[in-house]
Write a structure and sequence with these properties.
51% strand; Maltoporin, Chain A; 5-stranded mixed sheet; Phage tail protein beta-alpha-beta fold; 826 residues; Ferric Hydroxamate Uptake Protein, Chain A, domain 1; 22-stranded antiparallel β-barrel; mainly beta
Length: 826
């Protein structure tokens, strides 16, 4: 049956919320009646339980055993890395089970009080000593996750607790540091090019912001980016949006679908969580230099290690300088960034990580679009060059300064309770001068109309998230309950100017006339406050995995006019107060053969800080999703296959035309589709990624306003939403012989057609792009620690249009770019 004709099962939101509320209330009652940690630990140690744990990576087997046995275990990922555990089937005490799992590993579990163990190397003779590397404790519920090449075993993005990807009842993808390096990712968006359900270039070759459209939803903002578990806190209604360079990241986790139950206001398409590089308790030093096409050059360094003999304090200092001429004439990118951090391990149970991020972007490169006539198809027999710059040299510029400071604190009270608090403050200043094109000056001339947009913005924001986690047993059920309260506050002062300039010939541009006819300036003070209280319970019952969540949000936005206008006198304030209850529920069954089918329901809520043409706040967006899928992780491997079917409905989606400074409602949007993904470590030498996406998105009941009037677009597809996408990437490292140390990588990305206008009268053609990489470990030639890597994106230099937001704004795809990186680790 075609998916467009398939009906989702209807469940009353009221009944669903009542059921979730009742279950979570039961969880709270269980928490209140918990046995004391000491009695719980004693009972766990004396208990004989039946276990059915598959053979596989040692770390994962130990983690699963600890959760089921109700014990605490302290270990390091380095101790278990690369080691396998035998299957554990039958009845065992905790000590017997640990001994069986550690058989042949060279490790032993040493008791440390009631029901607590420390993993140690087996003694030689009578000597027994703790490992010299830092010990990170984990109790029932914390993960001993690992990353192997492109494969990650766990993620925190869907639950705010470390959960195995194969046991998460929602679609989650992970981009590892290894993958970013191999593919030569220059931006966060580029790093996700091989992830299903994600369109990473909705605005073409610009690098100014990390636009990410997910499951067909693209609101023109970057409001779905999170950094170290906290919202990035830029203002998507302005030009002040925080951006992190991928060099400073350890991994990127992508959650598909609504996620308000843990994060508050969010997009229904999903969110992207960036994890920055953390201090290491073993010495690590790396420097690198990059040169490439389009005048690319850069230097980076990454230094980390302990600051004391006991390895209780560690630092990390990462820095980068980058410059590029870009593919567009007269447009440059410049960046200088520094990220210091310090980690303090007061004891096994208490840690604090202090972080700062300082970034100065003197030049923000190109950001603009051109008419469909001349890009999608020829105009007067000509097409506009992919290098064309419609602005004015010497006038155009984008300068951004952003500084943030924050911390991550964690304290484990006992084997049951753990508290965490994450905080970040952001200060951002943006200065913009941009000349952009808007349509042809006449039906026959080759001259483009040009307009000017100027901005001077200051943003201050802070966000804090407090969590109390409880891990306990009720009968055969293992619970990981999470109670949280988060608060965020943002203030943005914006001074905007606008005007018009003389037209420019798109095929033979002549620059030099920078005279601007100014319009009336505008100035606003924008404020946002949000408070959220959430409760989640993750339940393991035999082979079942259940996830239940509930959240209440209170949100206030205001927009105060600071310059007199005809419609709004100086001092006029428009404010909007909203509250919303959101929920999530999921169930997964884990078969012994590694197959795990699941079903989940989730909601999103995003009160609009946007205003319409009259300055009135738009109604909040509300999204709901049903998702069913299956995951498969072959026993004994970290390989993961995922297939999911989803249906998302969103009310009151907001849209902004590029030449306007206000937003418009576009009614209801329905998105449904299929996503498939594979992460494979086939051999020690061969890594493979594969994905396929089918997205059927349409206006379910919409009236989309345009500059030409009001058009009924019901049944049409939104722009910038390809129906099909597919990709595959392979990386092979030669293991022996004269070519040992050589690495070869290559990938193919296919993006199907999309619509150039909301009326669906013109298509943006499909395109296929090829990427390649070549690396060599110079240690094979005696240069220990030196590595060389070459990367090529769009290897065949395919000329294409990435997407169109309308017939007036189409975005040039990224031309071929080459880069060479030399790194030295010491």
């Amino acid at each position: 049956m075609p998916m467009a004709n398939r009906r989702s099962p209807h469940i009353s939101p009221y009944r669903l919320r009542q059921a979730i509320h009742a279950t979570l209330l039961g969880t709270a009652v269980s928490l209140a009646n918990l046995a004391t940690p000491a009695s719980l630990a004693q009972a766990a140690e004396q208990a004989v339980q039946r276990y059915n744990i598959q053979a596989g990576p040692l770390g994962e087997a130990l983690n699963r055993f600890a959760r089921q046995a109700g014990i605490g275990l302290s270990a390091t990922p380095a101790q278990t890395s690369g080691k396998q555990a035998p299957a554990l089937q039958g009845q065992f005490t905790p000590s017997q089970g640990l001994q069986r799992l550690l058989q042949g590993s060279g490790l032993q579990a040493t008791p440390q009080g009631d029901s607590n163990y420390v993993l140690q190397a087996q003694p030689e003779g009578d000597a027994v000593s703790l490992p010299t590397t830092d010990i990170t404790g984990f109790s029932l519920g914390n993960a001993l996750g690992s990353v192997d090449g492109y494969n990650a075993t766990h993620s925190q993005i869907a639950t705010k607790t470390s959960t195995a990807l194969a046991q998460t009842s929602q679609s989650v993808s992970v981009v590892t540091r290894n993958q970013m390096d191999d593919q030569g990712s220059q931006t966060v968006a580029q790093a996700m090019r091989y992830t299903p359900g994600v369109l990473t270039n909705p605005y073409g070759a610009t690098h100014r912001y990390d636009y990410v459209a997910m499951r067909g939803f693209n609101d023109g903002s970057v409001d779905n980016i999170y950094i170290d578990g906290l919202k990035s806190m830029g203002d998507s209604g302005t030009y002040s949006t925080m951006q992190i360079d991928p060099y400073f990241l350890e991994r990127i986790d992508i959650l598909k679908g609504p996620s308000s139950v843990l994060y508050g206001r969010s997009s229904p398409g999903g969110l992207v969580a960036l994890t920055t590089k953390q201090p290491l308790f073993e010495p690590y030093h790396q420097v690198q230099a990059t040169v490439g096409s389009q005048g690319t050059r850069g230097l980076g360094f990454d230094l980390s290690g302990p600051l004391d003999d006991d390895k209780r304090i560690a630092y990390r200092l990462t820095g980068l300088t980058h410059r590029s001429d870009t593919q567009f004439d007269h447009a440059e990118e410049k960046r200088y960034t520094l990220a210091p951090s310090v980690a303090l391990r007061f004891n096994e149970d208490t840690s604090l990580t202090l972080q700062a991020y300082l970034q100065h972007d003197p030049q923000g490169g190109y950001h603009g679009g051109l008419p469909a006539a001349g890009t999608l198809h020829s105009r007067n027999g000509q097409r506009i060059s992919e290098h064309f710059f419609e602005g004015e040299p010497g006038l155009d510029g984008y300068k951004r300064d952003q500084q943030s400071v924050g911390y991550q604190f964690e304290h484990r009270f006992n084997d049951v309770f753990t508290a965490r608090q994450n905080f970040r403050y952001l200060d951002s200043r943006v200065k913009l001068d941009q000349v952009y094109a808007y349509g042809w000056a006449s039906p026959t001339r080759n001259a483009l109309n040009r307009y000017y947009s100027g901005a001077n913005e200051q943003l201050h924001s802070w966000i804090i998230d407090n969590m109390l986690q409880a891990e306990y047993l009720t009968g055969r059920a293992i619970h990981t309950a999470l109670l949280g309260v988060d608060y965020q506050r943002r203030k943005t002062v914006v001074d905007w100017t606008s005007g018009s300039l003389s037209p420019i010939d798109a095929f033979a541009p002549q620059y030099g006339d920078a005279t601007i006819s100014y319009y009336s300036p505008t100035s606003y003070l924008r404020r946002l406050q949000q408070t959220g209280v959430y409760l989640q319970d993750l339940i393991e019952l035999d082979q079942w995995r259940f996830s239940l969540g509930l959240r209440q949000d209170w949100m206030k936005t205001s927009d105060e006019n600071r310059v007199a206008e005809t419609s709004r006198p100086t001092g006029t304030r428009i404010s909007d107060d909203r509250s919303k209850l959101t929920s999530r529920a999921g169930a997964l069954y884990l078969f012994d053969n590694g197959i795990a089918p699941y079903i989940s329901y989730s909601e999103s809520f995003n009160p609009n800080s946007y205003s319409d043409a009259q300055g009135k706040p738009l109604a909040p967006t509300e999204g709901t999703q049903w998702e069913v899928g299956v995951k498969y992780q072959p026993p004994g491997t970290s390989n993961l296959f995922t297939a999911s079917l989803f249906r998302i409905e969103q009310e009151n989606l907001a849209s902004k035309l590029p030449q306007e400074n206000f937003y418009r409602p576009v009614g209801q949007v329905r998105s449904q589709g299929l996503e498939m993904e594979a992460h494979l470590q086939l051999t020690d030498a061969l890594k493979l990624l594969g994905s396929y996406t089918f997205t059927d998105i349409e206006y379910a009941k919409a009236m989309l306003s345009t500059v030409d009037g009001v058009t009924n677009n019901k049944g049409n597809s939104p722009t910038q939403a390809p129906r099909h996408m597919a990709s595959v990437w392979a990386d092979y490292a030669v293991q022996g012989g004269p070519l040992a140390g050589l690495r070869l990588g290559g990938g193919v990305r296919y993006v199907g057609y999309s619509w150039a206008d909301a009326e669906n009268t013109m298509k943006v053609p499909a395109y296929t792009l090829y990427d390649a990489s070549l690396g060599y470990d110079m240690g094979r030639l005696g240069l220990r620690g030196v590595d060389v890597r070459l990367n090529a994106n769009n290897l065949t230099n395919e000329k294409y249009i990435a997407t169109c937001a309308s017939l007036s704004y189409c975005y040039m795809g990224e031309a071929r770019n080459l880069s060479a990186t030399v790194s030295y680790q010491f």
